[in-house]
Amino acid sequence: MTLQPVPATDPRPTLAVWKFASCDGCQLTLLDCEDELLGLTERVRIDHFLEMTPAEGADGGRARLEGRGPYDLSLVEGSITTAEDAERIRHVRRVSRYLVTIGACATAGGIQALRNFADVDDFLAAVYARPEYISTLATSTPISAHVPVDFELRGCPIDRGQLLEVVTAHLAGRKPRIPGHSVCFECKRRGTTCVTVAHGTPCLGPVTHAGCGALCPAYGRGCYGCFGPSDKPDLRSMVAQLRRDGMSERDIQRVFRTFNAASPEYAPVPELAAEERRDPPAEGS
Amino acid sequence: MTADADVNAARPPGPDGLVMGKDGLAALVDVLIRRGFTVVGPTARDGAIVLAELTSADELPYGWGVELEAGRYRLRERSDGAAFAHAAGPQSWKSFLHPSRVREWSADRVEGELVLTADRGTPPRYAFLGVRPCDLRAIAVQDRVLTGGAYRDPGYEGRRSGALLIVVECTEPGATCFCASMGTGPAAGPGHDLVMTEVADARGHRFWVRSGSREGAEILAELPTRPADAETRETARAGVTAAADRMGRSMPEADLRELMAGTLDAPRWDDVAGRCLTCGNCTMVCPTCFCTTTEDVTDLTGDHAERWRLWDSCFDLDFSNLHGGPVRASARSRYRQWMTHKLGTWYDQFGSSGCVGCGRCIVWCPVGIDITEEAAALHDWTRPERPDPEPS
Fold first, then answer.
1. Residue A187, SS3 per DSSP
2. B300 touches chain A (CB under 8 A)
3. I want to staple B148 with a disulfide (CB 3.0 to 4.6 A). Which of A126, A169, B144, B173 is the partner?
């Protein structure tokens, strides 16, 4: 297969997909759109998307492989963990009219932001036989820490329906319908019995951003917060509740230290969990 | 009771009613299905007694009770095999009459013209089996809200007008129940098609049944019953009377509307705001909370759009989001809005309390915030003899 030159008169808006430090799961959600994928390509011209570009490349494809742009809509996956990426995201911003981050890495720094709470050199020494080959920043930061972002889509990975909604809304020139309330809304709307109240299972649903359709509770397990914090979450009350549901101080700290570990909303959790230890809730309260 | 039912219709069994056994309950479900009803009733699933479509009375939660506390719900086995010895579960009948997600209309662009299509399918004819008296009142409250004013909800009206209500009086209140203090139970009020009282004792498992409408009487006539004996009637009545004294909670004996209006600046609102997760669970489980939001969906082509209506909540920041941001940004303002509307301004708006004392908001609040406890604290604050929190 060779890349066909794009006609200059193509009226479709152009789409670019970019990857930074990430696992590729979010951008693959675009390919996972199966039934809608052909319809999508009728509405947008996918101009830069390495995951669906032939490896061998072709003459004339160089610009597309590098992503010279400009693009009407850029979907950005991954966090910034190297000096090179910190430069590259500025290029992406320059060539993008509307920039949407997709997933927990791009929006909150991802699980790799655990390094933010430790010494990255210790990790390098522990993991790599030749740490000197590794060139990395001391932190993993979200895209918004480097360039202005027009919209942030949550999830690890993102939800296929929400991705299509963001793209469709952009094409229609309207606000995407991505609610910021808790996962509890989604449980109740689909009729799932609350796993915390009925089973005593610890669940982050009350402080977690909706979007997954309350997938985990529907299968009897607690939400582990892969969509990150909801609008104005009450972490103090949540931490107290997790303790009542049997979680230790260490467990509480760790359950917030996953895909959205570096979310600013979660910053008070270690202190709140320690407060709980010093001042445990009264029985039955 | 269906909208066109005649409350004063002749009731062949007479005021003493009839008695039937478990076989009568089985026959009831069969008769309802044969008459074309979609039968919805309680069944044990996922560690709770949920409401679901029933195909047989065998699916009823025989031998299951519940243990309720603030923020806690557990199934408990019962030795008496009773089917309805449980208090309110995680859902209410609004899940069927006022569903969480409804498509209202769709629009298509056909050759440059906009074609609108309203979603007005024929709703199923529901028979609700096992409506508790508090929930019967809740349905009446939603009737007033959704069909009682100038703006009637035709979708609700369609689902509601065909619904048959079979009430089972309450003999097993939970620790979070307070219908007695709200005047909504445990005995059944008006508006049902059939009302039953379950008795499961050494003399057998039986149901004292009375009809409340012509259709209820017709259905009852098809069931294997016998005239109600005095002993069953008295045992049933005594069970309901005793239930009123076994409520785990009660509202303070005060004019709740005045209490809400007079305590808007009480420090207690800050206290509850410190516990409230603003997760919205209380509003979602409340059988009278009716608020919805509208979502417009477009597809990739831009030639097809749909308008959906979803349950929303006053705890959602987006719910009060106007130009410049949400009107009720703090947890304090959102909890206060919910409680003062439910217990106070609901009277001004709809002529009754919005609370029926079912206790769901207490049980299904993950952190166990208790509306009766909050009301009592506000009531204490209004009393002149209240202790000075900072004695000098």
1. helix
2. yes
3. B144
List the single residue in B46, B295, B301 with the smallest CB-CB distance to A177: B295
Domain residue spans in chain B?
18-245, 256-382
Q: Nearest residue on chain B to A179, judged by CA atoms?
A: B318
Q: How far apart are CA B170 and CA B133, in angstroms?
A: 7
From the list B52, B84, B338, the residue with the least C-alpha distance to A192 is B52
Q: Do A172 and B298 count as a contact with CB atoms less than 8 A apart?
A: yes
Counting one residue from chain A and one from chain B, the pairs whose CB atoms sit within 8 A come to 129
User: Using CA atoms, how far apart are residues A104 and A108, in angstroms rounded to an integer?
Assistant: 5
- Check if B99 contacts A (Cβ < 8 Å): no
Residues of A in contact with B95 (CB under 8 A): 191
Does pLDDT of B9 surpass 70? no
Q: Helices then strands (H, E): number in chain A?
A: 13, 5
Nearest CA in chain B to A235: B277
Tens digits of per-residue pLDDT, B230-265? Answer: 999 999 999 999 999 999 999 999 999 999 999 999
pLDDT digits (tens, 9 = 90+) for A72-131: 999 999 999 999 999 999 999 999 999 999 999 999 999 999 999 999 999 999 999 999
For residue A176, which of B82, B175, B296 has the smallest C-alpha distance?
A: B296
> In chain A, what are the domains?
14-172 (3.40.50.700), 183-278 (no CATH)
Q: Are strands B292-298 and B304-311 parallel, antiparallel or unpaired?
A: antiparallel
- Report the interhelical angle of A34-43 vs A160-172 (nearest 10°): 20
How far, rounded to the nearest angstrom, does the alpha carbon of residue B145 sit from its chain's CA centroid? 14
Burial class (CB in 10 A: 0-12, 13-18, 19+), B322: exposed
Which residue of A171, A185, A191 is in closest CB contact with B280? A185
- A197 to B302: CB separation less than 8 angstroms, yes or no: no
Q: Number of H helices and number of E strands within chain B?
A: 14, 16
> With contact defined as beta carbons under 8 Å apart, do B383 and B211 qualify?
no
**Nearest-CA distance A193 → chain B (Å):** 6
CA closest to A244 among chain B residues: B367
For residue A162, give the chain B residue with the closest CA: B297
**Interface predicted TM-score (ipTM):** 0.91
Cα separation, B281 vs A65, in Å, equals 48
Looking at the complex, does the CB of residue B230 fall below 8 Å from at least one CB of chain A? no
3-state secondary structure of B226: strand
pTM value is 0.91
Query: Which candidate, B171, B172, B168, places its Cα nearest to that of B135?
Result: B168
Q: Cβ separation of A237 and B274 shorter than 8 Å? A: yes
Chain A partners within 8 Å of B302 (Cβ): 43, 171-172
